[in-house]
Amino acid sequence: MTLDDFWHQSRIICALLAGDKNNARFAADILKASGGEDVNFFQLVDKLLGSEAEISLDLATLDSVDLVLMDAAHEQISLAAFEQMPSSMIQAASNFRYLAADAALKTSFMMLERGLQNAAQLNKSGAPCWKPRCRPKRLWPPWMARMLWANRCPP
To answer: Higher model confidence: residue 127 or residue 110?
Structure first.
């Protein structure tokens, strides 16, 4: 993506936020016709403009803008999609409303690990707690085990 494409995409997003669907559609059509190749972006914009077509996103090419658009389009953000996000965006990711359960757990853990959230806030966030006398029936990834240990339930 060139810098010029980025600004065109920003303009489309601004039109969407302003509720100007005609201008957003026109700008998206112009960008696509002029060689814009971000398939994920165009699918998400189409969905935000009311298309009911099934979307199939390429997780390998997702970027931060796509993740924000996924949330706006009420598309669930899977852990695989979430892991495409730069770690510097973790605090913003805590505001996503459509994170899959495992992605939401990973967000909570990363915020706990970076000191952006403490165990008390983690409890309020709805993250599961772990009772030391209970053993999970399956092996947890190390990051999840550390988060659950940090968020122990009272006896």
So the answer is: 110
